[in-house]
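Structure request: YbaK/EbsC family protein, Microtetraspora fusca.
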Amino acid sequence: MLEKLHPNVARVTEVLRSHDVEGDVVVFPESVPTAAAAAERLGCEVGAIANSLIFDADGEPLLVLTSGAHRVNTELIAGLVGAAKVRRASPEFVRLHTGQAIGGVAPVGHPAPVRTLVDTWLGKHEVVWAAAGHPHTVFPTSFDELIRITGGTAAEVE
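Returned structure:
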């Protein structure tokens, strides 16, 4: 378990509180870097996990919060955001734009705002779980709350 609150988790928690998010960050003793691992640990459907995926959209970061049950169609989202090319970002690109490591990227708490798409499929779940800035952490939220706290746009991403 995280002996001391990791700085990224502290930052995410601060941002969540500033947006009046009521759910508490849950810290696991082991990493839950995938939707399947998180769903198993939480006892929920994999579709209720909000994967935070960073893409490189013509050199700019694009965060796609997608249901753990989906794969993102990069051609589709390129059209949605008006980018010539959207591709998976490198770990270095992710850390540069979020301050967080792949497997624990939160929807908030980044050094600067990141354009965000939120998978409409997440709206099918009353509670969804998102990473909280570290691979050992998640927090409960909802589709509507994710839109609100990220300033994101609802989109079909698959």
